[in-house]
Amino acid sequence: MNKYDTNNIFAKILRTEIPSDMLYEDEYAASFKDINPQAKIHALIIPKKEYQNISELLDGDKEFLSNFMKSVSKAIKKINVKNEDFQLIANNGENAGQEIFHMHFHLLID
Ligand code: AMP
Fold first, then answer.
1. In a 10 Å sphere around its CB, with 0-12 CB exposed, 13-18 middle and 19+ buried, how is residue 44 labelled?
2. For ligand 1, is residue 19 a contact (CB within 6 Å)?
3. Count of domains for the chain
């Protein structure tokens, strides 16, 4: 895998260099609306750590991973106000459709 590019779009969103429609944020994670929604609600949930994809996250710092997943749960509860069924998807690598190389979950609620 290539080195993490600190100029990727989501890194810029975390640094507030480009705007986002923020839905949830804490010490470990941020969640904002996808710019090109594929469902009624389409949010992205990203870690506040430089991981390019979910493989790196899973192989990385276990304490961070645990805290991040707790934050993912909080973000989902905040965004999914009606407690509907949902999809949580991570594209890992170019051949799987990953376009932005800062790890992210797609949260889709139809
Ligand atoms: P992936 O193909 O899994 O890397 O997903 C990247 C996602 O980021 C796509 O669904 C895009 O619509 C979304 N996206 C790209 N730029 C932005 C942006 N500036 N703000 C919010 N979402 C974005």
1. buried
2. no
3. 1
